[in-house]
Amino acid sequence: MSMHKTAAVLFVLIAGSAFISAQADGADNAPQELFDSDDIDSLFEDSEDIHVEEQDAADPAGSQALTITVADYSVPLKFSGSLDAELGGFLTNERKTQNKDVSPSLLFSLTNYLNFMARIDKTLAVRGSTSVSFPPSKNIITLEELYFDYLIFDRIYITAGKKETAWGYTRLFSDENAYNLYTDKDYDSLTEAEKEEFRREMEKQGALFTNILSDSKSSVSGLMRIPLWTGTLSGIVLYNGASTEPKADEISVAGSVEMTFFHTSFNIFGRKDPRRDDGVQPVIAGAEAKKTVFGTDLYIQGIGKLTDEKDDFSKCVFTGGFYRLWDGHDPNFGINVEFQDSYNKLLKKNSCRVYVDMLLKRLGKNKDMKIGLQWQHIIKSETNDDKSGLVKLGFIKSGLFPHADWTTGIEVRYHPADEEYRNKMHFIRLGSSVSIQVNY
Question: Which of 64, 118, 375, 435 is most exposed, with minimal Cβ within 10 Å?
Fold first, then answer.
């Protein structure tokens, strides 16, 4: 979730959250949350970026333990959960033609997560998570994750099952964070075929996911990690088919080596995917580095997509940015800026974009207010959609009701207009909602 001061327009001051747009044109495009304060906090929490070597998350403070005993063997089970609910409404001023239409919409969403963990002993643990959502995007009940962790020789870590995995130091252009720049639909409501179509459309604009495992959530995977000197050697296989006996050419394979030298983290990685119907077999290779200087994280990444002959790069993408959180006094201020440039050798064109997220929090007498701004802008693209972008501004007040946040936000999507506004979407959306978030 992934870019001046408020007066005439509200868009130059502050910070960024996940305004998940809603559609008023049918059930498949049901309204979604406006701004998510958890997304803002997670983006600017004072913690390390995503690394190859993943650590087991601490058990939630409110988790409940249950021990099941079979004969002389006992298995401790721990359960936890969370509830996210939101109710509100918004107005959308959309212009697809020379006429402007203002349409009101109601906003309602509810998702409940139930998590469990069974640790057999120090070498084996089983974890899982399910969610129940309304209105449902595809299924009312969704299996989010189900996997096991296994430790061999107190050194080799194996994780297998359905689990989302992230590699890389980038923060904003990772996964589908830049997705909202290209469509107003809810990404999670799309089928896998539709997601792949949008991935390819984004690549036409020059985008290439900086997390090469962005599709791991919808795949079955097996990950092995081995500590190596000052870093980690990792390998993973992913399968997204239906067969219980997948062939080798139906499986994606990826690897990564992460090391630390002179207080700088380096990561070299690559991935090979199954051959597509058009005969192309995508292969990706890349490297990145991250260093903290005077409290600011500086990072850079380069990725190349090889041609089918594997002797040259058909596309190169460079992403760099910085992240800083000033939390030594109130209010806290955080900023994250990334710039991405890609070159398509086949078209002999390059594209570049910028992504900015800023946050001002712990405002007010009770330190219970936040203001966030997100700005995505295409400076140059491989098509004719240059100088288009997306701006989101949100104000969040906590403590208005128990366990609730009150959010008011505005979103503006802009494109350079042709005479007939053909294939262009221009809209301004203003909304307000109350969200309830409880961990139990």
Answer: 64
Contact 363, 384 (CB under 8 A): no
pTM of the prediction? 0.76
* DSSP annotation string for 277-331: TTS---EEEEEEEEEEETTEEEEEEEEEEEPTTSSSEEEEEEEEEEEEEE-SSSS
Q: Which two tokens stand for residue 357?
A: 């997220």
Q: How confident is the model at residue 88 (pLDDT cuts 50, 70, 90)?
A: very high
Question: What span, in angstroms and rounded, lies between the C-alpha atoms of 151 and 120?
Answer: 12
SS3 content of the chain, % helix, strand, coil (to 5): 10, 50, 40
pLDDT digits (tens, 9 = 90+) for 370-393: 999 999 888 887 666 677 888 999
Q: Can you list the alpha helix ranges (DSSP code H) found in 112-225?
A: 192-204
Cβ atoms < 10 Å from Cβ of 29: 16
Collect all residues with Cβ–Cβ distance below 8 Å to 371 and sequence separation of at least 6: 13, 14, 15, 359, 360, 361, 363, 393, 394, 395, 396
d(CA 362, CA 387): 34
* Element at 67 (helix H, strand E): strand 64-70
Alpha-carbon span 158 to 54, nearest angstrom: 11
Residue 372 backbone dihedrals phi, psi, to 5 degrees? -135, 145
Tokens 């501004």 belong to residue? 393
Which residues, 6 or more positions from 170, have their beta carbon under 8 angstroms from its beta carbon? 49, 210, 211, 288, 299, 301, 319, 321, 338
What is the DSSP code (8-state) at residue 56? P
Quickly count: other Cβ atoms within 10 Å of residue 58's Cβ.
Answer: 7
**For residues 116 and 60, is the Cβ–Cβ distance under 8 A?**
no
